[in-house]
Amino acid sequence: MSMRLIWEIREIYIIQNDNCYQLQIFLIRGGNLMRFDIIKPISEDQHYRILDIDGKIINEKDLPNLTDEQLLYLYRTMLFSRTIDEKVLSYQRQGRMLTYAPNIGQEAAQVGSAYAMEKDDWLVPAFRELGAWLVRGVPLKNILLYWYGNEWGSHFPEGVKVLPISVPISSQLQHAAGIGIANNIKGEKNVVVTYVGDGGTSEGDFHEAINFAAVFNAPVIFIIQNNQYAISTRRAIQTKSETLAQKAIAYGIPGILVDGNDIFAMYSATKEAIDRARNGGGPTLIEAYTYRLGSHTTSDDPTLYRENEEVEQWKKKDPILRFKKYLLSKNLITEEWDDNLKEELEKIVTTTFEEIENKSDTEIDDIFKYHYEKMPPQLEEQLKEYKEFLEGGK
Amino acid sequence: MANVLNIVQAINQALEIEMENDPTVVVYGEDVGLEGGVFRVTAGLQKKFGKDRVFDTPLAESAIVGTAVGMAINGLKPVVELQFMGFSYPAFNQIISHVARMRNRSRGRYNLPMVIRAPYGGGIRALEHHSESTEAIYAHIPGIKVVIPSTPYDAKGLLIAAIRDPDPVLFLEPKRIYRAFKQEVPEEAYELPIGKAKIVEEGEDVTIITWGAMVRDVQKASEMVKEKGIYPEIIDLRTISPMDRETFVESVKKTGRAIVVHEAPKSFGAGAEIIAVINEKAFLYLEAPPTRITGFDTTFPLPRGEKHYIPSPERIAKTIEDVVKF
Question: Based on the domain organization, do B166 and B204 belong to the same domain?
Fold first, then answer.
């Protein structure tokens, strides 16, 4: 058997990224250079993490410098998100609310990342970002009104730079890229934070949006909430990549795999990405490794596709529980304080829901009025005919 | 010196004027910057306005339209180019799910002042996917406007109106007549109203409703039948959606006969909508069944067959005679 030298090894590098180890081998033949990359993901206990599941700080140097007041705000907002979910789910079971997509288990991924934003920054959500909406000032009344089935829920007050819920998976990422590119064109310093799920990484729009943002160096933070399931489909069926964060490598942008149930890690990783973007460093891809403790929406039955044991394991990593342990250990809160807070938040939801329940049916005119600045004659005619029908005329 | 332009030049001038007038107007798409687009419609704009406002993008139609949504929300007026209408479908989700809906979804909080330009229609001996006329697909979607010019004068005035429109406009350019003829066009900016048809030729005997490149073919057919004493009234719809129903309904009330001519397939096309409106609004004035002359319900043929597909002036003239004799 004769052996022929085809490629000669020229250089080898081992790089440690935030989310993986990367072995780069440069080969040469004639004048041609070729690069091989072997990527070994970091295991779950090596995700970027500051607060462990027992509520202990394991990465003191990265612990964000937040005041007690700020810590309590974060906790309150996470608990508010959880409370809203629980209340709405109970309304839904009572037939008082329509389909709902709960966020339970993902509070740290949302609240931590959104809290790293500045006043002027943009939030471009998918549809499971309750925690982020609350941080960014979307009124609870809007949120409930949306899920109650009225478009006015998506009419956020002036000054709230949050886009409406986007249901078609990943399509919102394009809008985030566009807002970011526009910032560069206008010379504005604000940044964009946008969210997608693990399933959304399989869509073409995921690729196109990150690619555009990278090519045009747009200040956009793409956060994948990897909650392990797209309805019933497991993460492993979405991609052969070992991690979702490593997809950043192909776009030539930084990527980081974060413990999505760690409020401090989510805040800190997003803050770093935002600071970089604001200073002209372009986009970042963040994989928030988390778990959807509830259903996809109220129309789905998770017991069909996952074992209860798995859910129980993840309950131990509950982001609120973990943060609470930390706050208790710091004597910033007590169990009694927590109980009172929970009660207070429940009351807010009850009162706000009372404001909309049974008085939020859509005005007929509103169905027609907002398709164009001025209603075309066709629409005017259809509206008029329908009203005449209702009035028992024609 | 008179400003005599073809459609390509008229569109280019409209873009240049609006970019000068309004610093928020940006132009981008595949090959539109350095090269000035495959049809050179955007030629010279990058040189004049710089790479921040006129730029080439990665090859991704969904992102071209999707980023325009974000830009429009963030205070710019993007005018994006899709290289051919046949390549607009990767962007269809963005157009139908977001471009058309953002104003209604947010109850007026966000409107999208944006234009999507695309060359459309056949007759240029092109490869597959380069000859389609799928305006009806887009006209069916509430929330966007679909505009099709047929002359340099109209192209300039309608595009300026589209850029200034607070709502999204799909601006389809009949590429078969991009350079077919020139016309004197005012040098300054002017707007033609979107949603308003134009009576190209007045006549008494039959109303012909058409648009885009077919307008010229209908005019040729009209010359043929005039020799036989038939005088058609030709209406250039100019906007497919929202459609100017009043102009053609009034005309049909006068002539009692209606023919729709379009290049797109017959079934479920814009012609069907026009005839439905005529039946609703002018039924008792009709002296003959409203008729369509269109492309076939087939895929647009490759170049060796396209002459059979696009309705010819002869075919149109024959139908006019049949309808008048009915």
Answer: no
More confident residue, A14 or B268: B268
pLDDT tens sequence across A143-199: 999 999 999 999 999 999 999 999 999 999 999 999 999 999 999 999 999 999 999
Residues of A in contact with B90 (CB under 8 A): 204
CB contact under 8 A, B52 and A154: no
Active site (annotated) includes residue A371: no
Inter-chain residue contact A163 with B63, CB threshold 8 Å: no
Q: Is residue B193 part of a domain?
A: no
Query: In terms of domains, do B58 and B202 share one?
Result: no
pLDDT for the residue A27 = 76
- The pLDDT value recorded for residue A384 is 97
CA-to-CA distance for A382 and A200, rounded, in angstroms? Answer: 38
Put simply, the answer to whether B70 touches A376 (Cβ < 8 Å) is: no
A177 CB neighbours in chain B (<8 A) are 63, 66-67, 70
pLDDT of A21: 65
Q: Are residues B24 and B164 in the same domain?
A: yes
Q: Is A195 a catalytic residue?
A: no
Same domain, B227 and B101: no
**B245-255 and A377-390 helices cross at what angle (nearest 10)?**
90
Q: Is residue B316 part of a domain?
A: yes
Rounded CA-CA distance B183/B189 in Å is 16
The rounded distance, in Å, linking the Cα atoms of B183 and B284 is: 40
Q: Are residues B177 and B30 in the same domain?
A: yes
Q: Which domain holds residue A23?
A: 8-41
- A306 is annotated as an active-site residue: no
Nearest to B251 by CA among B220, B225, B286: B286
What is the number of domains present in chain A?
2
C-alpha span between A270 and A276 (Å, rounded): 10
Which residues span the domain enclosing B228?
198-325
> Residue B40 is part of a domain; what is its CATH number?
3.40.50.970
CATH code of the domain in which A257 resides: 3.40.50.970
- A122 and A198 in a single domain? The answer is yes
Question: Are B207 and B168 within one domain?
Answer: no
d(CA B183, CA B190): 15
Q: Are residues B99 and B176 in the same domain?
A: yes
Q: How far apart are CA B284 and CA B294, in angstroms?
A: 25
Read off the pLDDT of each residue in A343-348 and give the average, rounded to a whole number.
Answer: 98
Instruction: State which residues of chain B have pLDDT below 50.
Output: none
By DSSP bridging, strand B258-265 and strand B206-210 are parallel
Token pair in block for residue B39: 């049809």
pLDDT value of residue A28:
77
> How many domains does chain B divide into?
2
Same domain flag for A128 and A153: yes
Q: Give the tens place of pLDDT for each residue, B96-147.
A: 999 999 999 999 999 999 999 999 999 999 999 999 999 999 999 999 999 9
In tens, the pLDDT along B62-85 reads: 999 999 999 999 999 999 999 999
Q: Other CB atoms closer than 10 Å to residue A6's CB: what's the count?
A: 7
- R_g over Cα of chain A: 24
CA angle A278, A284, A285 (to 5 degrees): 150
Are A82 and A13 part of one and the same domain?
no
**Interval A325-339: pLDDT, tens:** 999 999 999 999 999
Say yes or no to pLDDT of A380 above 90: yes
Residue B242: cis peptide before it, omega within 30 degrees of 0 = yes
Query: Is residue B189 included in any domain, yes or no?
Result: no
B105:A151 CB<8 A? yes
Residues 6 or more apart in contact with residue A223 via CB below 8 angstroms:
A109, A113, A193, A194, A195, A196, A270, A286, A288
Contacts of B273 in chain A (CB under 8 A): none
pLDDT value for A6:
67
Distance CA A71, CA A264 (A): 10
Q: Is residue B70 part of a domain?
A: yes
